[in-house]
Design goal:
With 105 residues, the chain is mostly beta strands. 0% of the residues lie in helices and 44% in strands. The protein contains no helices and ten strands.
Length: 105
């Protein structure tokens, strides 16, 4: 199955506290339908001290977002768009922008 969003794609958040913000996809978790976007959906994690030499700390981490809450940004028209698939002569598939019709890959 072809993926609509891949690693290093630019996406725009369309729902939630970070709506309207853009970022690059750092990781895709296809099994859970989630993505981690750089600098988006930041949460604080409290880490306990493991030994006397390592202090406890509060970390800022990126939490995963559901795929339905992000849209791919087309590199040619620079707008958030839905993704269509087009078959190539070689038998493979390529992603296509639904707004301008340009191949994304």
């Amino acid at each position: 199955m072809a993926a609509r969003v891949k690693r290093n794609d630019t996406v725009e958040v369309i729902a939630g506290k970070d709506r309207g913000r853009r970022g690059s996809v750092r990781q895709v978790m296809a099994k859970n339908n989630r993505v981690i976007v750089t600098g988006i959906n930041m949460v604080k994690k409290h880490r306990r001290s493991q030994n006397p030499t390592m202090p406890s700390e509060i970390l800022d981490l990126e939490a995963p977002l559901h795929l339905s809450n992000v849209m791919l940004v087309c590199p040619s028209c620079d707008l958030a768009t839905r993704v269509a698939f087009d078959t190539l002569d070689s038998g493979g598939k390529t992603r296509v922008c639904k707004r301008c019709g340009v191949a994304i890959d």
